[in-house]
Amino acid sequence: MMHEIGMHALPADTTRHDWLCYAPVGKEFAVMDQLAEIGIDHWRGTAVKFERRGKSRTPDAYDYPALPNYIWASPLQWQVHLMAKVKYMSRTFLFLSRADVDGQTLVYNKGKADEREEYKPGLREFARAVDERERLARRIAGNRDAIKLYNRDEQIQIVDGPFAGRLARFRHMAQGANDLFPKVVADVELFGGMTRVRFDPLAVDKVKGS
Predict the structure, then answer these.
(1) Among candidates 95, 56, 53, which has minimal Cα distance to 74?
(2) Quick one: pLDDT at residue 209?
(3) For residues 108 and 115, what is the distance between their CA atoms, to the nearest angstrom?
(4) Measured between alpha carbons, how far is 209 from 82 in angstroms, rounded to an integer?
(5) Are residues 159 and 130 in the same domain?
């Protein structure tokens, strides 16, 4: 159901509803900033992508809205009219039902031999997954900043995974087409020879005391 929100104040109460709001591509974070300034709850869904730009030799972290063109807002009833004043945001909002937000279980062919259930996740579950990926990406980005200090052939220590406790020699950073973030490429001594291994950035660290 679409609702056209006018400029008139609604009665003040504590009722809160969820709305999907529209903003032009590239203006989503500007809209979120304005919502924060006027105290309207919203999800600042952020997708962190690692990209190589300009003359940078390694990919850096850049923020993108997780829902391009859209913002999930949860204003109190009395705050709804304020959203019409937010720059760049359309005044036409899409109302989100509880099922839209929290998900629902659908039953097909109820009462028949082939009855089956199918769970449809809601926006909240999607948001949790995005937030978890952002949290991991932030940690990776912080670790990558430290990795920039590594020099080729520098000795590093492996702190997690099956090679934990071993030393390795840093070679370079690499990001494959299916990698969510850059990996550390290092040489590890195995069975009397050097083997090149790709590590999660959180799995390695500088050698203490170096």
Answers:
(1) 95
(2) 66
(3) 6
(4) 56
(5) no
- Number of structural domains (the chain) is 2
Is residue 155 within 8 Å of residue 207, measured between CB atoms? Answer: yes
3-state secondary structure of 60: strand
* Helix or strand holding residue 140 (H, E): helix 123-147
Q: What is the pLDDT of residues 131-146, one digit of tens each?
A: 999 998 888 777 666 6
Q: What is the pTM for the complete model shown?
A: 0.67
Contacting residues for 95 by C-beta, under 8 A, at least 6 apart: 1, 2, 3, 17, 18, 19
Residue 67 dihedral angles phi and psi, to the nearest 5°: -120, 80
CATH code where residue 180 lies:
2.30.30.30
Residue 16 is given by DSSP the state B
Q: What range does the domain containing 106 cover?
A: 2-139
Are residues 21 and 118 both part of a single domain? yes
For residue 128, give the H/E element and its range: helix 123-147
Q: Compute the average pLDDT of residues 4-28.
A: 75
Run of H or E residues at 173: strand 167-174
Query: Please, are residues 25 and 68 in contact by the beta-carbon 8 Å criterion?
Result: yes
